[in-house]
Amino acid sequence: MTASTTRTGIVHLVERAPQLAGADMVAALVPPPQFADATFETYRADPAYPSQQEAKDLLLAFSGAGQPAKGGFFRKAKRPETKPGVYLDGGFGVGKTHLLAAIYHALPARRKYFGSFIEYTALVGALGYKNTVELFRGADLLCIDEFELDDPGDTMVMTRLLGELVSSGTRLAATSNTPPNALGEGRFAAQDFLREIHAMASSFQTIRIDGTDYRHRAVDGHAQVLTQPQYEAAVADASASGLVSDDTFAHLVSHLAKVHPSRYIRLIEGLSAVGMRDVEPFTDQSAALRFVAFIDRVYDAELPIRATGISLDLVFPEEMLAGGYRKKYLRAVSRLVASTLA
């Protein structure tokens, strides 16, 4: 019996070597499961923060889901002048990704794509820049969630890519990563975003979204840690009704270096839960960043995590948290806590 046909039982991710063709990678660029049905109607604007309703109204117009002019949204003579891109600026948990997915679902486009910044850069890494441009050329919409501002090389590649696509008529919608404990720093994120994509800044309209974290998650909380007997019982119980992975943390981290990040989505394909034994702190930043990319895929797939060892929110040592990738690590910590409590 192969992993592709197994629906229950235990598998080891270190034994998986997923392959993913360019067409498959592009086909996977859709909103994650938790936002598969996100719409403007299901976005609940908080009356205490008028900017939320204002943002919703502006994005309705951008997507053509508000009150399109007679003759269709894409009829230029009937549409108010708008920039080809919108950037959603706001703190953690104010619904930016929900609104981004709502744009994706509402815009009447034949070709549209939704992915995280790392998914797009992974695609460039796997296929090459020119091939990626050709794959997206002629697309009506690209949604980019959590645009990373901490890697100059990747930012430059993405800015160049977006510039080429906008010149051929593609519309853009983006958010950027902000620290989960920095609700007041959203405005700085907008300044950083526009500065880093200076060649493309004039193409974006910044839309501010104020508010408090609707999830009310305490980012200083800890991920759940199980004893070995608890872990074994949890994995056995979950494997009776679904497919569960079971790997030592060190072996999993080592294996991630052998799998291109664009294929992490296939690495967890078919799983209902992820198990990690003997979690320990990172000593290598490259390994830590690969783990962040992996956790993004686990979180998007809404997979619970069960783990032993140290608490998963402590895997990034202080020197890493104080460095240039702080935002990525803090986002991963929040997601790790949530996934172990799921």
Question: In a nutshell, what does this entry contain?
Answer:
With 342 residues, this protein is of the alpha/beta class. The chain is 40% helix and 15% strand.
Topology of this protein?
Blueprint (H helix, E strand, L loop, with lengths): L8 E3 L10 H6 L22 H14 L21 E6 L5 H11 L5 E5 H11 L1 H8 L4 E7 L4 H16 L3 E6 L9 H11 L7 E6 L18 H12 L3 E6 H8 L7 H4 L3 E9 L5 H16 L4 E5 L8 H4 L4 H16 L1
Parallel strand pairs: 1-7, 2-5, 2-6, 3-4, 4-5, 7-8, 8-9
Helix pairs in contact: 2-3, 4-5, 5-6, 11-13
Largest sheet: 5 strands, parallel
Count of helical regions: 13
Low-confidence stretches: 68-79, 179-187
Strand content is: 15-25%
Helix content: 40-55%
What's the count of strands? 9
What is the H/E order? EHHEHEHHEHEHEHEHHEHEHH
> Mean pLDDT, rounded to whole units?
84
Q: Describe the global form.
A: globular
> How many angstroms does the end-to-end distance come to?
29 Å
Structural class: alpha/beta
Lateral arrangement of strands in the main beta sheet: 3-4-5-2-6
Gyration radius, in Å: 20 Å
Describe what this molecule looks like in 3D.
This protein is of the alpha/beta class and 342 residues long. The chain is 40% helix and 15% strand. Strand 8 (271-279), helix 11 and strand 9 (305-309) form a beta-alpha-beta unit. The longest helix is centred in the middle third of the chain and has 16 residues, at 152-167. Residues 68-79 and 179-187 have low confidence and may be disordered.
